[in-house]
Amino acid sequence: MLPKLIGLAHRPRFAVAVIPVAAALAVVLSMPTAGLAAASRSASGAPAAPRSCASLTALSLPNTTITSAADAPAETLQPPIPGLGLPPMPIVAACRVHAIVTTPGANDQIGVDVWMPISGWNGRFQGVGGSAFLAGHPYFMAGAVDAGYAAAVTDAGNKSGNPFDGSFALDSTRQLNWTLIKDFAYRGVHDLAVVGKAVTAAYYGSMAAFSYWNGCSTGGRQGLAEAQRYPSDFDGILAGAPAINWQKYVPASLWPQLVMLQSGDFLPQCKFAAFQTAAIQACDSLGDRVVDGVIGDPAACRFDPRSLIGISTPCGTITATDARVVAKIWQGARSTTGKFLWYGLEPGASFAGIGNTVTANGQTIGAPFPLVLEYLGTWVQQNPPVPRGTWDWTTTTHARFDQLFRQSVDLFGDVMGTDNPDLRGLKKAGGKLLVYHGLADQLIFTEGTVNYYQRVQRLIGDQKATADFARVFLAPGMAHCGGGPGAQPANALSKLVDWVENGRAPKSLDGVIRDPSTGAVVATRPICMYPKVAAYTGQGPTTEASSFACR
């Protein structure tokens, strides 16, 4: 994840930063590159001098055409979408290869970009993930290549370049295009692994000693798709805030908006911030045993939003209806009969992701996260939402929501769900899986990741047998893929590399808290392996990781 804290400059002392949609997208698009420098030591000694980059156009690979191969000088890459706060990314001189892969009988075109440092290769290969409907972009490779990795990304057949454009799921007759859906769901990433490693071997004259996957959000889902379907593709998989349980979590992300719609009460963000702040104040010391503006164990938080009824805020007095709305959002999506459908936001997470609202001229309206509208409109109903189509989400009744939820599960559970707990193939292949997820994630429900890992444990047999090859780390106070006042993983990839190459399984990740204005590290904290949480030992400064133990 890029070391970037979004929207923190003006956060209240006890509140997680409110992250509006544009800034949330910036976090979504930030790739998990923390720890690359520490993990960039050579894996195979000094590699042979690379061959001519241009000669790779003659490389023959099954179902693959190399369309370009050329050396590129060191430069600074600009983000794929301007205006969202993503920083320019420096990258060393590299051989840049673009390939097109076709699936036999499918008439598709999956793009794969492979970039390899001209000098300083560390002997490793890294596949890098995407975000939302963007399967990958060369910009995301900068950190990996700069750290000495040969790296690859794929467009998975989606050529739009827009992370919120899912129109590729429909063909010209507005029917589901299952070829491109499967390309996006899992085939494109497998092609990335096969082609990327082959191109790397051809360029350097030797196979990469180790291969890794690194992605967050959609990138995290892509990593778990590899673990489930192609367990031999990567030696180690780093999956942050994985967008698994897609068929359930995405429709459930409309729940906050539906609750407000049905209640006739779209809360201004300052009211949401009041509930968020109050929850953190009430539950601050849970888990970590310190008051630091972060809930260390949100599952133990029992804050009652009704306690704020009658409290004045800059945008009005909190009402009983406001409190009921917040309680239902925290509870999570339910059917018309009250049946559990999916999880809700954790106490302490910002509402400004899936619960985003916009206030103008004294009126507040809902502003659902764009991916949610695109998926429910284009994929589930085959009717692109406004502005490209005619679906008006504000006409959604609770009964219609139930229908959309069931349709999503029925249509896409087996393809996009990526929640198959059978990881025995990865275990047999000797692969390692490291998953991290922020407990203040405002876009993807953390409990979905916990639920998945518990199902893996049940299938594998027990906690220890699972932890031998797959581990989950929950980061209190961290928002989606980064941001928020909690400690952020600083070395997740290097921990994975050490596990794969030296057999040292991580018991915790090194978490850092940075000054939002300078980026300087102001505190450290261990991020513990689930189900443990970091607790203050009672001795030493609370700003130092050594004062905490995983319990």
Automatic annotation (TrEMBL):
Entry's Gene Ontology molecular function annotations: carboxylic ester hydrolase activity; metal ion binding
InterPro entries associated with the record: AB_hydrolase_fold, Tannase/feruloyl_esterase
Pfam families: Tannase
Keyword Cell membrane applies: no
Keyword tRNA processing: no
Lineage: superkingdom: Bacteria
Keywords, comma-separated and alphabetical: Calcium, Disulfide bond, Hydrolase, Metal-binding, Serine esterase, Signal
Entry's family note: Belongs to the tannase family.
Name of the protein in question: Feruloyl esterase
Lineage, opening ranks: Bacteria, Bacillati, Actinomycetota, Actinomycetes, Propionibacteriales
